[in-house]
C-alpha cells in the first residue's frame, strides 16, 4: 500500500472520528448555550420577581408610612417615594410580563397587576383624603382595605417569586444533567480517539521507519572513497520509498559511471601532464647547445631512459663528398658491438629507409643476432625497436633508433612524437647557427682584409692628392703655354690669312692676266710656225731650226702659262664647271687618240679598259674630266720608260677607296684608274705631290720637266666635280692614280662657285648672334615686293611706343620700324613709358618689355589698362621668358599679345599688322 | 631563351627619372632634363624619402596631381649654397682688376644669374658702394626659384652666419666695418635698404628663358655645375648673348669657359678667379 494511502487512511480515520465527535460536541454546546440562556432568562425573571416583591414591599411600606399620619413636612416626600415605588412596581411587572412564558406565572402577574392597581387606587384615595386632612379616614382606609390588598399584593408577589424560583431551579437541574451527559460522552470519544489514533500512527510510523531505515542504511554504507562500487537498495514495493530506492539505485549507477569516467579522465590528464613535463624538459634542454654532437649526445642520453628504452642511437645527416649520409654521432648504452653500421645513405638499411620515407619503423620481433642490450649482469635481445625520422619542414635531418626490452606504450610513443618534433626544429636552428658562425668568421676575415685594403687606399689617396696638386700646377703651366701658343697661333693665322689673301690676289691677278699673256704668246707661236714652214723658202736650215725651237719653246711656255693660270683659277675660286652627259666611249676615244702616239713613241704598251656594268653616259664636266685624265696619263707616260700604262674605268664598290672615307663620299660611283709601271713614288711623298708648286723632289723638274702643277690642279678639279684622286705607289714599282667621281645627276647646270658658297655659309653663321635674326626669304621676288608694299601701307604713319631697358633692342626695333615709316618713341622702364604715353595719348601700339627696373612690364600694363581711354590700346609684351606660365601672365596682366625675345622681325611685323588693323 | 629579360634596376631608375623630367617639362615647363644625373638622382631620392614614396613613378604621380609636391621638388632642385663674399679672392680680384675699368663707363649694368637668396648680390652692392660706383650701377638679380628671390629681397640673413661673412668681407678687401651694413633684429641681420636701391629682383630661368638685356658684367657662379655639357653650352650662349663687347663674365671657382662654345670669344682677366672679358 502506498505510503500516501496509508497516511491518508490513518489520519482520515482519526479525523473522521474526531469530526463526528466534534459535530456532537458542537450541537451539545449549542444546546448547552441555549439552556444557559434559558437559565439566565429564568434567573432574570427571578430577579424581576424579587424586584417586584421588593418594590411591592417598599410600596406598601411607603403607603403605610403615609397611612401612619406622618408629619406634614414628610408627606410630600413620602408621596413622591410612594409614587416612585409604584412606578417601579409597574415597570417591573411590565418587564416581567414581557418575558414571561409560563402560564402559571402569567396568571399571577395578571392578578398582581390587578391588585396593585387596586392598591394604587386606594392610594389615590388616601392621597385625597390626606390632602383633605382626613387622617382618620386614611387610617380606616388602610385598615379596612389597604392592608388586605397590600397583603394580597405581597402574597402574590411571593408566589410569583416562588414560581419563578422553581422554574429557574428546574432549568438549572436540567442543564446540569445535560452537561454531565455531554461530559461523559466526550470522555469516551476522546479515549477512543486516542486509542485509534495511536494505533494507526504507530503502525504507519513503524512501516515507514522500517523502510526508510533500509534506505538510509544502504546510503550509509556508501563508501565515499570508492565511489565506483556503490550498494543498491533492494526494495520491491512501488510506493514512494520504493521510488526513492529506485532513484537511489539509478543515482548510484550514474555515480559509479561518472566516477569511472573521472578516473579515466584523470588518468588521461596525468598522462598528458607527464607528457608535457617531459617535453618541456626536453625543450629547455636545447638552450645553450650550439653543436650537433653535444646535442645528439645530450638528447639520446636523456631520451632513452625517459621513453623506457634501454638502448639508443642518434644519426645525423651529413654531406660526405657529394652525398647525404646519416652518420651515428651519439649513443646510449652503446657497447661497441660490431653489429650495425656507422652510417647509412638514403634508403640504405632500415635507418636509410626510415629517412627516405620519413615514417617511423617499428620492429616487434627482433631476431636473435640483432643488437643486444647488455649490463653487468647479462645481455639479451630487445623486444621492440623503434626507428624514428626527425624532420624539419619535410626534410629529414636525423634518425633516432631505440631498443627496449618492453614494448613502447602508447604514451611513450606519443612522447616520442612530441619530442622528435621539437628536435627537428632545434637541429635546424643549430645547423643554421653553425652556418651563421661560419659566415661570421668569413665576414670577419673579409673585414680585416677590407681594413688593410682601406689603409692601402688611404695611402694611395694621399699619393694621388700630391700628384693632383702637381698636375694642377702643371695644368696652370700648360694653360699659360696654351695661351702663349694661342697668341702665336693667332699671329700665325693672321699671317696665313695675309698669305692666303695675297695668294688670292695673286691668283686673281694671274687669272685676269690670262688673256694678256696668251695673246702675245699666240701671235709668237703663229709667227714662229709660219717661219718654220718657210713658205717663202728663203731661210736656211739653221734658221728653220731656230724657228722650230722658237715654236716649241713658245708651246712649252704656253702650256706652262696654261697650267699656272689653271691653278691660279682654281685657287681664286673662279674655275667653272659645266655638267653634261658624257659618253664614256667618247672619253675612251679621246684618250686613245691623245696618247696612243705617245705610247708608240716611247714604246710603252697602252691599254684602255671599260668595265661591262658601266652606264653609257655619266654626268660630269667633259672638259674637266678630260683635263684630269690628260694629266694623269701624261704623268704616267712621263715617268714610265718601259712597260705598260693602262686606263681602267669601272663602277665603284665599297671599300675601294680607303684613304679618304671621311670625306663626303656617299655618292661616288665611278673610278678612273691610271696604272703605270714607271719609277713609282716613295710613300713619304704621296701627299706632297698634290701640293701646288711641289714636285716629288726638287730634281724632278730637271729630269722630267713639267711644272709640278698638274696633280694639284687635277685634285682641285676633281673636288669641284664632287670626287677626289687617290694614289697607290711603291718606289720603283710603278703607280696607280685613281680618280673617283660621283654621278652628279642632282646638280643643276648652273654656275657653282666655290667661293660664293663659302661666303653664303659664313654669313649664315655670323648672323647667329644678336637680337635680330636676319630674314631668309625664299619667296620669289615679285611676291616679296607685293607683300612688302602691303605691310608698308598698314604701318606707315603709325605711332609706336617701345618700352625696354635693353638698348640693343630699342636700337634694332627703332631702326627696323622706321624703315616702315613708323614713328617710334621709346622709354627705358615702365614708369617712363607711362609718362610718355600720357604725354602722347595718340600712340597706336606699345611694345612692352617685361623685365625692367623701377616698374616692370606687368605693373606698367596694369596701370595703363586702368586708364579708360587706354583700355583697348594694343600692347604687345616682349618677353625673354619661355615658359607657358610666364606668357600667360603677360596676357593676364592685360597685354593684347606677346612675342618672345630674341625678336623675330617678320613675326613682330605680322603681329603689329594684326593689332593695327582697323 | 630569355629575350625579354627586364632591364636591370639602375637602368629602370634612369628611365623613370627621364620620364619624370620629361613629364615635368611638358606639364610645368620647368626643364631639368639636362642637369647632371647624380645631382638629379640625389635630389629626387631625397624628395621621395621626405614624401614617403617608394618609387620614382610614384613620385611622378604625386608631381602631376599635387602642385605642392612639385613646389617642394622645385625647391630641392634649386641650389642654394651661398655666402656673402664667397671665395673672397674673387671679390678682391674684381675690386683690383675690374673696378678700375668700370669707372670709365657712364653707367654700369650687372647681372647676377642664379642669385639664390641674394648674398652675392648684397656683396656686390657693398663692394660697388665702397668703390663709389653704386649710384651709376643697376644690378639685375635673377633666379629660377621665386621663394629664394623673396628672401633676397628681404635682406635678412641669419645672425650666426655673420662671423663667417665678416671674415670673408675683410679678406675681399673690404674697406669699412662689415657691421655698418646691417642692423641686428632678433636672430637676423637685416641689411640696410640703400644696398638694394638699384637692384632689380626678377624670376628668370636660365634653362628656358632668353636674353632680356645687355650687360657690362655678368656673374654666374656655381650655377652650372649641375648642368650637363649640352645645357651648359646653351646657358653659356645665353650669357654670351647678354654680354656686351668688352663685358666681363665671372664664373665659379670650379668652372671655366675653356671647353665651351664661347671660349674663343673671351680673354682671361684673371685665370684663377675665373674672370673673363669678351673680345668679340
UniProtKB/TrEMBL annotation, chain A:
Reactions catalysed: ATP + protein L-histidine = ADP + protein N-phospho-L-histidine
Response regulatory domain: residues covered: 799-916
Signal peptide: none
Gene Ontology cellular component list: plasma membrane
Start and end residues of each Histidine kinase domain: 512-745
Modified residues (4-aspartylphosphate): 849
Alphabetically ordered keywords of this record: ATP-binding, Cell membrane, Coiled coil, Kinase, Membrane, Nucleotide-binding, Phosphoprotein, Transferase, Transmembrane, Transmembrane helix, Two-component regulatory system
Coiled coil ranges: 436-498
Transmembrane regions: 6-26
SMART domains attached to this UniProt entry: HAMP, HATPase_c, HisKA, REC
Name recorded for this polypeptide: Circadian input-output histidine kinase CikA
Native species: Peribacillus loiseleuriae
Automatic annotation (TrEMBL), chain B:
GO molecular function, one term: S-adenosylmethionine-dependent methyltransferase activity
Residue intervals of the CheR-type methyltransferase domain: 5-257
InterPro entries xref list: Bact_Chemotaxis_MeTrfase (IPR050903), CheR_C (IPR022642), CheR_MeTrfase (IPR000780), CheR_N (IPR022641), SAM-dependent_MTases_sf (IPR029063)
UniProt superkingdom: Bacteria
Protein name: Chemotaxis protein CheR
Organism: Peribacillus loiseleuriae
Species classification: Bacteria, Bacillati, Bacillota, Bacilli, Bacillales
Amino acid at each position: 500500500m502506498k505510503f500516501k494511502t496509508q497516511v491518508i487512511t490513518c489520519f482520515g480515520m482519526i479525523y473522521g472520528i474526531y469530526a463526528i465527535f466534534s459535530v456532537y460536541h458542537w450541537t451539545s454546546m449549542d444546546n448547552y448555550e441555549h439552556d444557559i440562556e434559558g437559565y439566565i432568562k429564568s434567573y432574570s425573571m427571578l430577579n424581576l420577581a424579587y424586584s417586584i416583591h421588593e418594590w411591592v414591599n417598599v410600596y406598601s411600606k411607603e403607603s403605610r408610612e403615609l397611612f401612619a399620619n406622618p408629619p406634614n413636612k414628610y408627606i410630600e416626600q413620602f408621596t413622591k417615594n410612594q409614587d416612585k415605588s409604584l412606578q417601579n412596581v409597574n415597570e417591573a411587572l411590565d418587564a416581567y410580563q414581557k418575558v414571561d412564558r409560563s402560564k402559571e406565572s402569567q396568571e399571577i402577574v395578571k392578578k398582581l397587576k390587578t391588585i396593585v392597581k387596586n392598591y394604587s387606587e386606594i392610594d389615590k384615595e388616601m392621597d385625597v383624603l390626606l390632602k383633605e386632612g382626613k387622617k382618620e379616614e386614611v387610617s380606616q382606609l388602610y385598615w379596612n382595605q389597604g392592608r388586605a390588598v397590600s397583603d394580597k399584593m405581597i402574597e402574590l408577589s411571593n408566589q410569583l417569586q416562588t414560581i419563578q424560583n422553581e422554574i429557574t431551579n428546574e432549568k438549572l437541574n436540567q442543564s446540569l444533567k445535560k452537561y454531565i451527559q455531554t461530559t461523559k460522552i466526550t470522555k469516551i470519544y476522546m479515549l477512543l480517539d486516542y486509542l485509534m489514533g495511536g494505533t494507526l500512527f504507530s503502525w504507519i510510523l513503524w512501516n515507514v521507519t522500517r523502510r526508510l531505515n533500509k534506505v538510509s542504511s544502504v546510503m550509509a554504507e556508501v563508501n565515499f572513497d570508492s565511489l565506483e562500487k556503490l550498494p543498491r537498495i533492494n526494495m520491491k514495493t512501488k510506493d514512494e520509498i520504493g521510488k526513492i530506492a529506485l532513484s537511489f539505485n539509478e543515482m548510484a549507477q550514474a555515480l559509479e559511471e561518472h566516477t569511472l569516467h573521472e578516473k579515466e579522465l584523470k588518468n588521461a590528464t596525468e598522462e598528458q601532464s607527464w607528457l608535457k613535463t617531459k617535453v618541456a624538459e626536453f625543450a629547455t634542454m636545447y638552450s645553450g647547445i650550439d653543436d650537433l654532437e653535444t646535442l645528439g649526445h645530450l638528447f639520446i642520453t636523456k631520451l632513452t631512459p625517459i621513453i623506457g628504452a634501454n638502448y639508443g642511437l642518434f644519426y645525423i645527416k651529413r654531406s660526405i663528398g657529394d652525398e647525404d649520409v646519416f652518420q651515428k654521432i651519439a649513443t646510449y648504452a652503446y657497447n661497441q658491438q660490431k653489429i650495425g653500421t656507422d652510417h647509412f645513405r638514403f634508403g640504405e638499411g632500415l635507418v636509410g629507409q626510415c629517412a627516405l620515407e620519413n615514417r617511423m619503423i617499428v620492429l616487434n620481433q627482433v631476431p636473435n643476432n640483432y643488437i643486444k642490450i647488455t649490463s653487468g649482469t647479462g645481455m639479451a635481445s630487445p623486444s621492440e625497436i623503434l626507428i624514428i625520422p626527425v624532420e624539419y619542414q619535410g626534410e629529414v635531418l636525423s634518425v633516432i633508433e631505440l631498443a627496449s626490452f618492453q614494448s613502447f606504450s602508447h604514451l611513450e610513443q606519443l612522447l616520442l612524437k612530441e619530442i622528435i618534433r621539437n628536435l627537428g626544429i632545434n637541429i635546424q636552428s643549430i645547423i643554421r647557427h653553425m652556418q651563421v658562425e661560419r659566415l661570421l668568421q668569413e665576414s670577419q676575415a673579409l673585414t680585416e682584409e677590407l681594413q688593410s685594403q682601406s689603409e692601402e687606399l688611404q695611402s694611395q689617396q694621399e699619393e694621388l692628392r700630391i700628384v693632383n696638386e702637381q698636375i694642377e700646377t702643371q695644368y696652370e703651366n700648360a694653360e699659360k703655354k696654351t695661351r702663349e701658343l694661342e697668341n702665336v697661333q693667332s699671329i700665325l693665322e693672321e699671317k696665313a690669312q695675309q698669305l692666303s689673301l695675297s695668294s688670292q690676289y695673286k691668283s686673281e691677278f694671274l687669272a685676269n692676266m690670262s688673256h694678256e699673256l696668251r695673246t702675245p704668246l699666240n701671235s709668237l707661236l703663229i709667227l714662229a710656225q709660219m717661219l718654220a714652214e718657210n713658205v717663202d723658202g728663203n731661210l736656211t736650215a739653221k734658221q728653220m731650226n731656230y724657228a722650230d725651237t722658237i715654236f716649241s719653246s713658245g708651246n712649252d711656255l704656253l702650256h706652262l702659262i696654261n697650267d699656272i693660270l689653271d691653278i691660279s683659277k682654281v685657287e681664286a675660286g673662279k674655275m667653272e664647271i659645266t655638267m653634261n652627259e658624257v659618253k664614256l666611249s667618247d672619253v675612251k676615244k679621246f684618250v686613245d687618240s691623245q696618247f696612243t702616239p705617245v705610247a708608240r713613241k716611247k714604246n710603252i704598251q697602252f691599254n684602255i679598259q671599260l668595265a661591262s656594268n658601266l652606264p653609257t653616259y655619266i654626268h660630269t664636266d667633259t672638259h674637266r674630266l678630260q683635263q684630269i685624265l690628260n694629266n694623269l696619263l701624261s704623268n704616267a707616260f712621263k715617268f714610265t720608260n718601259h712597260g705598260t700604262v693602262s686606263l681602267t674605268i669601272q663602277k665603284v664598290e665599297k671599300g675601294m677607296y680607303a684613304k679618304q672615307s671621311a670625306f663626303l663620299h656617299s655618292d661616288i660611283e665611278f673610278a678612273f684608274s691610271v696604272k703605270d709601271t714607271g719609277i713609282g713614288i716613295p710613300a713619304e711623298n704621296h701627299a706632297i705631290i698634290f701640293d701646288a708648286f711641289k714636285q716629288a723632289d726638287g730634281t724632278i723638274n730637271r729630269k722630267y720637266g713639267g711644272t709640278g702643277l698638274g696633280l694639284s690642279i687635277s685634285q682641285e678639279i676633281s673636288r669641284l666635280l664632287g670626287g677626289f684622286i687617290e694614289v697607290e705607289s711603291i718606289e720603283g714599282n710603278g703607280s696607280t692614280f685613281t680618280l673617283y667621281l660621283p654621278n652628279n645627276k642632282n646638280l643643276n647646270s648652273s654656275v657653282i662657285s666655290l667661293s660664293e658658297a663659302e661666303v653664303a655659309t659664313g654669313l649664315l653663321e655670323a648672323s647667329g648672334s644678336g637680337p635680330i635674326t636676319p630674314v631668309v626669304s625664299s619667296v620669289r621676288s615679285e611676291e616679296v615686293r607685293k607683300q612688302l608694299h602691303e605691310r608698308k601701307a598698314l604701318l606707315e604713319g603709325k605711332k609706336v611706343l617701345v618700352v625696354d631697358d635693353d638698348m640693343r633692342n630699342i636700337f634694332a626695333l627703332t631702326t627696323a620700324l622706321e624703315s616702315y615709316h613708323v614713328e617710334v618713341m621709346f622709354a627705358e622702364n615702365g614708369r617712363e613709358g607711362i609718362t610718355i604715353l600720357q604725354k602722347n595719348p595718340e600712340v597706336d601700339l606699345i611694345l612692352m618689355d617685361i623685365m625692367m627696373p623701377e616698374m616692370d612690364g606687368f605693373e606698367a600694363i596694369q596701370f595703363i589698362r586702368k586708364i579708360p581711354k587706354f583700355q583697348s590700346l594694343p600692347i604687345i609684351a616682349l618677353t625673354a621668358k619661355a615658359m607657358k606660365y610666364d606668357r600667360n601672365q603677360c596676357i593676364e596682366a592685360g597685354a593684347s599679345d606677346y612675342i618672345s625675345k630674341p625678336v623675330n622681325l617678320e613675326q613682330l611685323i605680322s603681329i603689329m599688322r594684326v593689332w593695327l588693323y582697323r | 631563351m630569355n629575350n625579354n629579360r627586364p632591364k636591370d634596376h639602375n637602368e629602370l631608375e634612369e628611365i623613370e627619372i627621364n620620364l619624370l623630367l620629361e613629364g615635368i617639362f611638358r606639364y610645368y615647363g620647368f626643364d631639368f632634363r639636362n642637369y647632371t644625373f647624380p645631382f638629379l638622382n640625389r635630389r629626387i631620392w631625397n624628395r621621395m624619402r621626405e614624401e614617403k614614396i617608394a618609387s620614382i613613378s610614384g613620385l611622378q604621380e604625386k608631381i602631376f596631381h599635387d602642385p605642392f609636391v612639385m613646389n617642394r621638388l622645385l625647391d630641392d632642385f634649386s641650389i642654394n649654397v651661398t655666402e656673402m663674399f664667397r671665395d673672397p679672392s674673387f671679390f678682391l680680384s674684381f675690386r683690383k682688376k675690374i673696378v678700375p675699368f668700370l669707372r670709365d663707363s657712364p653707367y654700369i649694368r650687372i647681372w647676377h644669374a642664379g642669385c639664390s637668396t641674394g648674398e652675392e648680390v648684397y656683396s656686390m652692392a657693398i663692394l660697388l658702394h665702397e668703390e663709389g660706383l653704386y649710384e651709376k650701377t643697376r644690378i639685375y638679380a635673377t633666379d629660377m626659384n621665386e621663394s629664394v628671390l623673396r628672401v633676397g629681397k628681404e635682406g635678412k640673413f641669419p645672425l650666426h652666419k655673420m662671423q663667417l661673412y665678416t671674415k670673408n668681407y675683410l679678406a675681399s678687401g673690404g674697406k669699412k666695418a662689415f657691421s655698418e651694413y646691417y642692423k641686428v633684429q632678433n636672430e637676423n641681420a637685416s641689411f640696410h635698404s640703400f644696398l638694394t636701391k638699384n637692384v632689380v629682383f626678377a624670376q628668370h630661368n636660365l634653362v628656358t628663358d632668353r636674353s632680356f638685356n645687355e650687360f657690362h658684367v655678368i656673374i654666374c657662379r656655381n650655377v652650372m655645375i649641375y648642368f650637363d655639357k649640352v645645357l651648359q653650352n646653351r646657358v653659356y650662349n645665353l650669357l654670351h648673348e647678354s654680354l656686351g663687347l668688352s663685358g666681363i663674365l665671372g664664373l665659379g671657382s670650379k668652372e671655366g669657359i675653356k671647353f665651351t662654345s664661347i671660349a674663343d670669344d673671351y680673354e682671361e682677366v684673371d685665370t684663377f678667379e675665373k674672370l673673363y672679358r669678351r673680345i668679340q
